[in-house]
Design a protein that fits this description.
single chain, mainly alpha, 12 helices, about 80% helix, about 0% strand
Length: about 300
C-alpha cells in the first residue's frame, strides 16, 4: 500500500495540471460566446465554460472519461441487451478498435522478436555478419517511420495486399531493432573466464549457447522486448493512418481529427496507452517468472 502513495500523488498532480491547462486553452471560445451574448464572464463561469465545452481544444479528464464510458462500457451493455454478446464485434465499441490494433501489434511484435533474435545470434557468432549487417540494422532506424509507412502501404496495395500485412510489417520494422541490440548485448554478456570454463568442460558451441549465453541474455532480452512491444504498437497506429482504415486506434485518431472531436482523439490515445501498459506489465510478469525459474535473484 505504501507504494501507491507516490503513484497517487503523481496522478493527482497530472490531473491538476490538466484541468489548469484546459482553462487558458479553451478560454477564447468561452469569451467569444459571451461577447456574442453581450454578457460578462466571472472567474467561476469562465472555469465552468472551459471545462464543459462540446468541442474543446483540450478536453478535461472528466470529459475524456465520459467519452471512454460511452465508447467502451455503454456499447457493450447495449449490445448485451440486444443479444450481441461480444464487445469486440460491436461497431460502436472502442474495444473493437483496440482489438484490431492489438492483433496487428502482436503479429508485428512476434515477427520482429523472431527476426531480432535471429539477427543477434548471427551477429554474435559471425564476424562477417557483425561487420556487414549490424551497421545496416542501426542505419535502418534513421529513416523516419512517417516517411516509410506510406511507401510500404502503397507498395503492398499496388500488388493487391492491403490491410493487415503492411501494418504488421511496419510494426516489425520498429520492433526488431531494440530486440536485436538487446539480444546482442545479452549474448555477449558472459565473460572470457566463463567461456573458458565452458571450454575446459568440453562443452560444444550449442551447449555454450544453451547453458551460458542464452541464460545470460534473458535480462537484456526482456528489457528490449518491453521497448519493442511499445514500438510495435506505435508502428501499428502509424501504419493505420495512411491506409484510410475504418477500424483501429489510428482510424479513431483520423476520425477525431476530421470532425474536430478532440475527446475522441484523447480517448483513443488513452486506449493506446492502456494497451501498451498492459502489454509491458504482461512481459514484466513473464520476466519475473522466467528469471526466478532460471535462478536470477530479484
Amino acid at each position: 500500500m505504501k507504494s501507491l502513495g507516490p503513484v497517487l500523488v503523481v496522478v493527482l498532480a497530472i490531473l491538476a495540471i490538466w484541468y489548469a491547462a484546459a482553462i487558458p486553452l479553451n478560454a477564447q471560445w468561452a469569451r467569444d460566446q459571451a461577447a456574442r451574448a453581450d454578457r460578462e464572464l466571472g472567474t467561476a463561469e469562465l472555469v465552468a465554460e472551459t471545462w464543459n465545452q462540446d468541442r474543446p481544444r483540450l478536453p478535461t479528464p472528466h470529459q475524456v472519461a465520459t467519452e471512454l464510458w460511452g465508447t467502451t462500457a455503454a456499447p457493450c451493455l447495449d449490445g448485451r441487451r440486444a443479444g450481441q454478446v461480444s464487445c469486440v464485434t460491436n461497431n460502436r465499441s472502442l474495444f473493437k478498435h483496440m482489438w484490431v490494433t492489438l492483433s496487428v501489434t502482436l503479429a508485428g511484435f512476434g515477427i520482429g522478436t523472431a527476426l531480432g533474435i535471429a539477427l543477434a545470434v548471427s551477429i554474435v557468432y559471425s564476424r562477417a555478419m557483425d561487420m556487414s549487417v549490424m551497421p545496416w540494422v542501426i542505419a535502418s532506424q534513421t529513416i523516419p517511420i512517417l516517411a516509410i509507412a506510406p511507401m510500404i502501404v502503397v507498395v503492398f496495395n499496388s500488388i493487391g495486399i492491403p490491410g493487415f500485412i503492411p501494418k504488421a510489417i511496419i510494426a516489425t520494422y520498429l520492433s526488431f531493432f531494440p530486440v536485436t541490440v538487446g539480444m546482442v548485448k545479452g549474448l555477449r554478456a558472459p565473460t572470457h573466464m566463463q567461456l573458458d570454463q565452458m571450454r575446459t568442460w568440453n562443452a560444444t558451441g550449442l551447449e555454450q549457447f544453451l547453458r551460458l549465453r542464452l541464460p545470460s541474455s534473458m535480462p537484456f532480452l526482456f528489457a528490449s522486448l518491453k521497448v519493442g512491444v511499445a514500438a510495435s504498437l506505435v508502428g501499428t497506429i502509424v501504419g493505420e493512418l495512411p491506409t484510410g482504415a475504418v477500424a483501429g486506434i489510428g482510424a479513431r485518431l483520423l476520425n477525431g481529427s476530421y470532425y474536430g472531436n478532440t475527446m475522441m482523439i484523447w480517448a483513443a490515445l488513452i486506449a493506446a496507452a492502456v494497451m501498451a501498459a498492459a502489454l509491458i506489465a504482461l512481459l514484466g510478469l513473464m520476466e519475473r517468472l522466467t528469471l526466478r525459474r532460471m535462478g536470477f535473484t530479484a
